[in-house]
Amino acid sequence: MVKDNKQFNTYKEGLDLEFLREYCMEHGERRTFLRGETLEEAGEPAQWVAFVERGCFKYMVHNDEEGKDYCTGFAFEGEFVADFPYCLDGDVSEVSIEADMPCEVRIISGRELQRYHFSAKQTP
């Protein structure tokens, strides 16, 4: 178990996503995922954005040539988990996103996020 997740997802440093966290906490549905349950499935339309309140998700890809699955990333407590930007339009997911332990999230649809973003830009 990783105790300090600051070494992961360093590309997110400097991003201010507080507005999105607040939106998910206020409007998102609280949902529990058991270990092994999927948020998104590779090859299916991506549709969710979730704020991880408890637990950890892993991003998995399948290499057909080798017949193996590989973990390509994680989403920890206090982070967002999504197949972005594919979830905004329901495009086919490139990865499977799976709960690596029991997880609790606040979840919204990517389409809802896109509508929120568009309406926020229209507000003077």
Structure classification: alpha+beta
Radius of gyration from the alpha-carbon trace, in angstroms? 15 Å
Helix content: 10-25%
How far the N terminus sits from the C terminus, by CA atoms, comes to 46 Å
Overall shape: it is globular
Mean pLDDT: 87
Beta-strand content: 35-45%
Strand ordering within the main sheet: 1-8-3-6
Describe the structure.
- With 124 residues, the chain is of the alpha+beta class.
- The protein contains 3 helices and 8 strands; from the N terminus they run αββββββαββα.
- The chain has helices spanning 18-27, 86-89, 110-122; strands at residues 29-33, 38-40, 48-54, 56-63, 68-76, 80-82, 96-99, 103-109.
- The strands form 2 sheets. The protein has a 4-stranded antiparallel beta sheet.
- The longest helix is centred in the last third of the chain and has 13 residues, at 110-122.
- The N and C termini lie far apart (46 Å).
Task: Identify the notable features of this structure and list them briefly.
124 residues; alpha+beta; 4-stranded antiparallel beta sheet; 22% helix
Furnish the topology, listing elements before pairings.
Blueprint: H1 18-27, E1 29-33, E2 38-40, E3 48-54, E4 56-63, E5 68-76, E6 80-82, H2 86-89, E7 96-99, E8 103-109, H3 110-122
Antiparallel strand pairs: 1-8, 2-7, 3-6, 3-8, 4-5, 4-7
Quick summary of this structure?
The protein is an alpha+beta fold. It has helices at residues 18-27, 86-89, 110-122; strands at 29-33, 38-40, 48-54, 56-63, 68-76, 80-82, 96-99, 103-109.
